[in-house]
Amino acid sequence: MTRTTQWLYGWLLLLPAMVLLALFTHYPAVATLWQSFFSTPRGSRPSVFVGVDNYRQLADDPIFWQALGNNFWYAAGTIPASIVIAILMAVWVNERIAGRGLLRLAYFTPTVLPMIAVANIWLFFYTPEYGLLARFLDAFGAGSHNWLGSKSTALPALMLVTVWKEAGFFMIFYLAALQSMSPHLAEAAAIEGASRWYYFRRVTFPLLMPTTLFVLVNAVINAFRLIDHIFVMTRGGPDNATALLLYYVYEVGFRFWDTAYAAALTVVLLALLALVALAQFFFLERRVHYQ
Q1: Which helix (H) or strand (E) holds 6?
Q2: Distance CA 206, CA 104 (A)
Q3: For the chain, what is the domain count?
Q4: Is the dihedral of CA 202, 203, 209, 211 positive or negative?
């Protein structure tokens, strides 16, 4: 086989994936960027070029800034908690303990449940007066509280649902990383008299950094693309307290039918995700240790 034939064979193997990536990722992103510079067609009035007017409107939109703030608080509350809990669960079920298989199954079960089903389950938990959480608090003499109807507790309630669902998913990656580590490292540390905490801090956790980088990128993307739980549980309320960026894009585009403004919001969301991903790779790549 000649060099040219090998080159052509390699590109032909990549062609299906490249076509799918171009059609369903790159083209929609470019089309959305282009549409954000036009107005929304209304009836017989066609779309016209408006430049950056949609972005000027975005800068003066208080709901956008509130949704952006909500999203940052949501990400700050769910990402670290999900990763820490995932690591703890992975370390625990990696040990030789009784019922290890059942524990792994129990931790991973929330991940395989449909998001709409999860939202309805937790909607019952949070229901005032007769919900599971209300009944539990009544047993200790605490009064009922409308967790999803209060501005102070609605967003933390959504955060709890996310952590419950995503920690088990991230655990699988950490468990796979732990099982790929050489057992000779632990044996050498035990011979040297290192404690389990010292071994985890100096050996295990640094070797988990490639997995942590992968999990962190996915966790950030998940934090900015949540819409199912909000749609079922709060509809962005009360008073936009749980409105996140993607849900606001959905409302603008499919409820108010302002597709051009929704395109501008989408471009800003994609730009934020790209900047965060670049920052993650720039600051964490130097701390990643490969075996």
Answers
A1: helix 3-21
A2: 23
A3: 1
A4: negative
Strand partners of residue 49: 38
Domain membership of residue 193 (yes or no) is yes
Q: How far apart are CA 162 and CA 69, in angstroms?
A: 18
In this predicted structure, the answer to whether residue 287 has a pLDDT above a threshold of 80 is no
Instruction: Write the CATH number for 242.
Output: 1.10.3720.10
What's the CA gap between 155 and 69, in Å, rounded? Answer: 11
Q: Helix/strand/coil (H, E, C) string of 97-161?
A: CCCHHHHHHHHHHHHHCCHHHHHHHHHHHHCCCCCHHHHHHHHCCCCCCCCCCCCCCHHHHHHHH
Whether residue 30 lies inside any domain: the answer is: no
28-46 pLDDT, tens digit per residue, is 999 999 999 999 988 778 8
pLDDT over threshold 70, residue 291: no
- Domain assignment present for residue 157? The answer is yes
Question: Based on C-alpha coordinates, what's the Rg of the chain?
Answer: 24
Give mean pLDDT, residues 219-242.
Answer: 90
> Which domain range does residue 211 map to?
57-287
Flag whether 51 is in a domain. no
How far apart are the C-alpha atoms of 241 and 226, rounded to whole Å? 14
Q: How far apart are CA 187 and CA 172, in angstroms?
A: 24
Instruction: Tell me the residue type at 122.
Output: W
Per-residue pLDDT of 234-248, as tens digits, reads 999 899 999 999 999
Which residue carries 């590109």 as its tokens? 11
